Amino acid sequence: MALESTGILAAMRVLDELPYAFSWTAPQPAFMQRTSHALATSSGVFLIDPVDEPGLDTRLERLGRVAGVIQLLDRHDRDGKTLAHRYGVPLHRLPRTAIPAAPFEVRTVLRTRFWQEAALWWPEHRMLVVAEAVGTPPYYRGPGELVGVHPLLRLVPPRMLVEFAPEHLLLGHGEGLHGPQATAALKQAVAGARRNAGPWAVSQALSRVRGKRPG
């Protein structure tokens, strides 16, 4: 569901475009695939873990007035503070409770010394936004997985995510999933995270070996 941008958006790649939202990623090495989101609500547009890119201001003007910036992961400082200052809006860093004027439910994914992460659930659109715990880049996914649990969480997967049945799954790394496959892939990823840890490790090792081969 990715759209290659042109013109003023030549420096960014637009993903997961919906009438009320879009995601974007920077033109960077495919390994990272840092993905940001803009969600248009009746109170304005909320930016999620945003990375600033040329053309972003113009693209956001089409969606609506920016109302706030939300950081869902402790490590995802990205350009949130810069953009909050530019638009003159609050920066909600690692929210624990409902965000004022926003229609999202805030859910805790992890709260540990080394990892603090929240997720957003937007009931109206059955949209789940997850920053880091699951993703779709190749380094997340094992054989047969559309979405995978973060490598460091495979042995202790975020089981709270299976409480949701999203129609739209937006991710902080990689392209999102939409339709019935979103819920199915999420539940499969969490349920099979530990069982598939071995196959995941083998697939990653083979991928690295193939990548080193000439041609």
Which structural traits does this protein have?
5-stranded mixed β-sheet; 6-stranded mixed β-sheet; 215 residues; disordered N terminus; Metallo-beta-lactamase, Chain A; globular
Furnish the topology, listing elements before pairings:
Elements: E1 13-18, E2 21-25, E3 35-41, E4 44-48, H1 56-63, E5 66-71, H2 80-87, E6 91-93, E7 105-111, E8 116-122, E9 127-130, E10 134-135, E11 148-149, E12 168-171, E13 177-178, H3 180-191, H4 197-212
Parallel strand pairs: 4-5, 5-6, 9-12
Antiparallel strand pairs: 1-2, 2-3, 3-4, 7-8, 8-9, 10-11, 12-13
Task: Summarize, please.
The chain has 215 residues and is of the alpha+beta class. The chain is built from 4 helices and 13 strands.
Overview of this protein structure:
The protein is of the alpha+beta class and 215 residues long. The chain has a single domain, classed as Ribonuclease Z/Hydroxyacylglutathione hydrolase-like (Metallo-beta-lactamase, Chain A, 4-Layer Sandwich). It has 4 helices and 13 strands. A 6-stranded mixed β-sheet has the order 1-2-3-4-5-6. It has a 5-stranded mixed β-sheet with strand order 7-8-9-12-13, covered by helices on one side. Strand 3 and strand 4 (44-48) form a beta hairpin. The longest helix is centred in the last third of the chain and has 16 residues, at 197-212. Mean pLDDT is 90; it is low at 1-10.
Specify the CATH homologous superfamily. Answer: Ribonuclease Z/Hydroxyacylglutathione hydrolase-like
Order of helices and strands: EEEEHEHEEEEEEEEHH
Can you give the helix content as a percent range? 10-25%
* CATH overall fold name: Metallo-beta-lactamase, Chain A
Question: What's the CATH architecture name?
Answer: 4-Layer Sandwich
Number of helices: 4
Number of strands: 13
Q: Per DSSP, what share of the residues sits in E-state strands of 2 or more residues?
A: 25-35%
How would you sum up the major sheet? 6 strands, mixed
Unreliable spans: 1-10
The Rg value, from CA coordinates, equals 17 Å
Structural class: alpha+beta
- Lateral strand order in the biggest sheet: 1-2-3-4-5-6
Dominant shape: globular
CATH class: Alpha Beta
Give the mean pLDDT: 90
In whole angstroms, the N-to-C terminal distance is 29 Å
The tally of structural domains comes to 1
